[in-house]
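User: structure tokens for this one?
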Amino acid sequence: MEPIEHRLFSELSKNWAGRPLDILETILKYARTTTTTTGLRVKAHLVRRRYKKDVKVTDAQMHDLALSMDAALPKWNYTIAPC
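Assistant:
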């Protein structure tokens, strides 16, 4: 998860405030109308592509990522940069 997602998750939760997320349009509406007091806004769109399940990433592929772990919580917080 990227840091921006952490900062927006509580705002998303407050925006939909326990209302049923019964259809995709409802979920997208709440996501798109979420803002923070500091001006962060959510951009959301539906991706209908089906992704393969159980795809394994090799150690070599992981090594090739521009991945940097956060000092405070390295197992949870990391940044992936363009290569």
